[in-house]
Amino acid sequence: MSWTLTADRIDDLARGAAVLGTGGGGDPYIGSLLARQALAVHGPVTVVGLDEVPDDALVLTVAMMGAPTVMVEKLPSLDEVIAPVNALGTYLGRPVTHVACAEVGGVNSTIPVAAAAALGLPLIDADGMGRAFPELQMVLPTLYGVTASPLAFSDEKGNVGVLQTVDNHWTERIARVACVEMGCSIMISGFPMPGPVAREALVPGSLQHCVDIGSGIARARAEKTDPVSATVALLDGREFFGGKVVDVERGTTAGFARGRARIEGDAGTLTLSFQNEHLIARTDDEVFVTTPDLIIVLDAESGEPITTEGLRYGQRVRVVAAPSDPRWHQEAALAMVGPGYFGYDVPSHRFDGTPEGALAGAVA
């Protein structure tokens, strides 16, 4: 069922997307500013369900690629956002009919709003993963054989390019090099899909889920109840740690924000390892949860999500784990997004602490 996205829902959307972004996906404030600007100039966006996308549609994803830490200072413009969509439509020789989120985390839930508003296109209430992941090929459409290329990209200088590659991993590798050369933050559009493929490969209801999470946090604060507990309930997740941030190591390398954070609490010291997004949460004695399930850091009092670039010494936080889309626990998916892919010799653990039972995706 379609619904209308107006400026008064952007804060809830951005807040919920920051929760699902698991620390990555970029600063939600920047994305909300861009979306508000587009909505103010071009009017509200029609959001449609996957079941409303016609078979002959041309669906393109729109996203920011790069290090979220860079985007804080390298603000995108609307022209930069729509340039790759227009370039890809021209390359394909047919009009784009729908815009979708590649991921639902952080700015990559609100940048497609800006693109849809500026282009006058409907936005699909769905995304490619149900969370955020650091690499381009890490979307469910990859598991369904959808190619990322042709993929178009643009930067703030006006550079625009289109890639045609042999597979999605090569699209990631080549686009990442371009991203680094263009300042570690670019806009991209790709994964062209007709309606039937989009209905099969995307995660339905993602944007509405973001709005529900964001409004749930705001409502809990207004009612003076616990916003963290409200978020846990909306995610069907669990809160597993709380404490004070005592150390953050963070750097931008190869186009990613990589590092780790340590949180001291009554249960010991929790270490969070991240590459844009949180990948592993563990103490010296226990692994609590790993990718592909969600690791979410929330402010202990306000319940506001804290991104990896926003982590600071002294913050009081509570850490939540939540389940990912079940398709991420297939063997092929774990090989693509499990801890082994990122070089960690740790079995994948689900949000409830249950091990997957193998070093899925381990690098030989």
Automatic annotation (TrEMBL):
Domain S-Me-THD-like C-terminal, by residue range, is 167-347
**UniProt xrefs under InterPro entries:** S-Me-THD-like_C, S-Me-THD_C_sf, S-Me-THD_N, S-Me-THD_N_sf
UniProt domain S-Me-THD N-terminal: residue ranges: 9-164
Quote any Pfam family the record assigns: S-Me-THD_C
Q: What is this protein called?
A: DUF917 domain-containing protein
